[in-house]
Design brief:
This protein has about 375 residues and is of the alpha/beta class. The protein folds into two domains: about 1-55, no CATH class; about 60-365, Alpha-Beta Barrel (TIM Barrel). Helices cover about 25% and strands about 20% of the residues. The chain has helices at about 1-5, 100-105, 120-125, 145-155, 170-180, 195-200, 205-215, 235-250, 275-285, 300-305, and strands at about 10, 15-20, 25, 35, 45-50, 55, 60, 65-70, 80-85, 115, 130-135, 160-165, 185, 220-230, 255-260, 295, 305, 315-320, 320-325, 355-360. It has a nine-stranded mixed β-sheet with strand order 16-15-14-13-12-11-9-8-20. Strands 1-6-5 form a three-stranded antiparallel β-sheet, with no helix packed on it. Strands 2-3-4 form a three-stranded antiparallel β-sheet, with no helix packed on it. A hairpin with a 6-residue loop joins strand 17 and strand 18. The radius of gyration is 20 Å and the shape is globular.
Length: about 375
C-alpha cells in the first residue's frame, strides 16, 4: 500500500468535510482552512482536489540526517543514541521567528528533493543503527499520513518514532497520530494568547490541550521546549506562570527546555537571547516545582545536565551533545540515593556524541 502511495505523491486524507458553499474545510488542525478547488491550505502540503483534501507531498522529504537524540531536544529518551531525522515542506503555523524557515516556509516542491517509502526509511534507519526516527524541521502534523506510515514501518523493525511538533492539531487526528509515536518534543511557544496570535498566527489553548492529552491519555514520553525571545516571552512572570501550569496540569516530571533565540526570518531586529536569561528561566522553573529544567542553544554544561531531584547528584552530564557522565543504575535510578529518573532509559547510554551525518536515500538501494 505504501509503495503504491509513493508512486503518486498525492494521497487521500480523511479529516475534512464539504461546506454548504461548496468549499472543503480541512479539519486536521485548528486553522480549519476552507478551500476552493485546487487551493492549498496555509500549511502548503494539503489541498482541495476534486472536492476532497489530499496530502500532496507523500514520500518526499527536504533531506535526511542522523542527529543525537538530545538535539530534538529529548534528554530523557534513550540518551546518547542516534536518530534519523527528516522533514518535508510547509507548516501550519506562521511563526515570524521561525528558525527553520527555509524548510517550513517553503512553497517550492523542489525543496522536497529526496524521496523514500516508509519501508525504506525504516530499513535505512536500521542499517545505520539508529534507535529512532524523528519527524522534525517542520511539523509532522501536516504530513500526518506519511508520518504514521513511517512510524508503523519503523515499529516493525523495533525502531522508535519521535515527533517534534508545535502541538497544533485537533482532537481526532491527534488521537490517531499519537497512537504511533513513542516520544515527542512539543514547542510551547509562549504562555500568552497575545504572543500566539501576533507572532504565530495561532492560538495557545489547542497546544495546552495537546500537552494535557499526551500526559493523561497516552504513554508517549514527551518534553517541552520554549524558545525565549527577548522582549516577547522572556519575562519572569510569564516563565513562572508557564512553569506552574506545567507542574499543576502535567506533573513535575515533564522536562522543560528553555532555548536561545537567534535573529531569523521576519524577526531580524530582535537580539539573540542572553545566556543569563536562560539560566534565570531554568532557576524559576526549578523553584516552581519542575524537576528537570534545561537550557539550550548555548554552551552551558550545568544547564544541559540532568540532576537527581531528591539528592541533587549529577545523573547525566552533558557537554553540548556529548554525554560526559552517567550515574544511573541499570533500571534508571540515581546511583547515590536510588530515586528513579523519569524517562525512557536503557542500562547503558548511547555513544553517538555530537555528530551530524547527512544521509542520501539514493545511496541506499
Amino acid at each position: 500500500m505504501t509503495n503504491d502511495r509513493l508512486a503518486n505523491t498525492v494521497v487521500p486524507t480523511k479529516y475534512w468535510h464539504i461546506l454548504d458553499d461548496g468549499r472543503v474545510q480541512c479539519d486536521l488542525c485548528p486553522r480549519f482552512c476552507k478551500l476552493h478547488e485546487d487551493q492549498r491550505g496555509l500549511c502548503f502540503v494539503r489541498a482541495n482536489q476534486h472536492n476532497a483534501i489530499v496530502l500532496t507531498t507523500y514520500g518526499r522529504s527536504s533531506g535526511y540526517c542522523i542527529d543525537p537524540i538530545e538535539k530534538k531536544p529529548l534528554n530523557h529518551f534513550l540518551p546518547g543514541t542516534p536518530v534519523l531525522s527528516f522533514g518535508t515542506a510547509g507548516c501550519n503555523l506562521a511563526c515570524k521567528f521561525c528558525q527553520n524557515w527555509d524548510i517550513s516556509k517553503s512553497r517550492e516542491i523542489d525543496t522536497l528533493a529526496d524521496a523514500a517509502s516508509p519501508e525504506k526509511i525504516a530499513r535505512v534507519a536500521a542499517e545505520l543503527n539508529c534507535r529512532s526516527v524523528a519527524f522534525t524541521y517542520n511539523d509532522p502534523v501536516i504530513f500526518h499520513e506519511y508520518a504514521i506510515d513511517v512510524a508503523q514501518a519503523c515499529h516493525e523493525r523495533g525502531i522508535k518514532s519521535v515527533a517534534v511538533t508545535a502541538g497544533y492539531v485537533t482532537a481526532e487526528p491527534r488521537k490517531e497520530f499519537y497512537q504511533y509515536m513513542d516520544a515527542a518534543n512539543v514547542d510551547l511557544k509562549a504562555f500568552t494568547e497575545d504572543f500566539y496570535w501576533k507572532l504565530t498566527g495561532a492560538h495557545l489553548q489547542p497546544v495546552l490541550e495537546t500537552l494535557e492529552y499526551l500526559k493523561h491519555e497516552t504513554k508517549v514520553w514527551f518534553e517541552i521546549t520554549t524558545l525565549l525571545i527577548p522582549g516577547h516571552n522572556d519575562g519572569s512572570d510569564e516563565i513562572e506562570s508557564l512553569s506552574k501550569w506545567v507542574v499543576e496540569h502535567l506533573g513535575p516530571d515533564v522536562p522543560l527546555h528553555f532555548s536561545a533565540f537567534h535573529p531569523d526570518w521576519k524577526m531580524l531586529d530582535v537580539p539573540p537571547t542572553p545566556p543569563a536569561t536562560l539560566t534565570r528561566a531554568r532557576e524559576i522553573a526549578l523553584a516552581n516545582g519542575v524537576r528537570y529544567a534545561y537550557t539550550g542553544n548555548v554552551h552551558d554544561a550545568k544547564g544541559e545536565s540532568t540532576y537527581c531531584h531528591k539528592c541533587g547528584g549529577l545523573l547525566i552530564g552533558r557537554d553540548w551533545y556529548v554525554l560526559s557522565d552517567w550515574n544511573l543504575t541499570a533500571d534508571g535510578r540515581c546511583k547515590a540515593c536510588g530515586t528513579p529518573l523519569a524517562g525512557v532509559f536503557e542500562a547503558q547510554p548511547g555513544q553517538w556524541g555530537a555528530r551530524r551525518q547527512v544521509v542520501h536515500m539514493t545511496a541506499h538501494a
